[in-house]
Amino acid sequence: MAASRPSARSLLGLVLLIAAISGGTQWWHATAQQRAAEHLAAVARPGDIRLISSTTCAYCTQARLWLQKNGVPFEECFIEKDSACQATFQAHLAPGTPLVLAGGRALLGFDPQRVLEALQSVQGSSRS
């Protein structure tokens, strides 16, 4: 008995289903990012977020641009240009940049939701 081949119609249906799922996932991610941006901009105060960067780090540039675009106050230093920045970076034993200090908590890499959670946990514990 020979295996039946899928029809063009069923393949088209599968492609459309995959496209719909992909589009929905991208929309969901963009919506979550926007919510995180709004919350982070509302919660963050000057001095709460410090971005420890490298001049050659593309992820650092992305983080900087995201923070600027969304109006989130932050400070940034570069490990190649500032010895105090380099010392802070080394003290945290970070394997790479960006290193984000959010309310004093060290986070490797930049994820707006993690930064928001770190700030909220610090602010929540200071209210107690």
Q: Rg from C-alpha positions?
A: 21 Å
CATH third-level topology: Glutaredoxin
Helix share, percent: 55-70%
Count of the domains? 1
Extended strand count: 4
Low-pLDDT windows of residues:
none
Q: CATH superfamily, called what? A: Glutaredoxin
Distance between the termini: 73 Å
Strand count, sense and barrel status of the largest sheet are: 4 strands, mixed
Mean pLDDT: 87
How does this structure look, described?
This is Glutaredoxin family protein. Residues 51-105 form the Glutaredoxin domain. It is a single chain. The protein has 128 residues and is an alpha+beta fold. It has a single domain, classed as Glutaredoxin (3-Layer(aba) Sandwich), CATH 3.40.30.10. 57% of the residues lie in helices and 13% in strands. It is built from four helices and four strands. A four-stranded mixed beta sheet has the order 2-1-3-4, with helices on both faces. Helix 1 (8-43) packs parallel to helix 4. The protein is elongated and about 70 Å long. The N and C termini lie far apart (73 Å). The model has no long low-confidence stretch (mean pLDDT 87).
Helices and strands in order:
Layout: H1 8-43, E1 49-53, H2 58-69, E2 75-78, H3 83-91, E3 99-102, E4 105-108, H4 112-127
Parallel strand pairs: 1-2
Antiparallel strand pairs: 1-3, 3-4
Protein name: Glutaredoxin family protein
Domain Glutaredoxin: 51-105
Short overview:
This protein has 128 residues and is an alpha+beta fold. It has helices at residues 8-43, 58-69, 83-91, 112-127; strands spanning 49-53, 75-78, 99-102, 105-108.
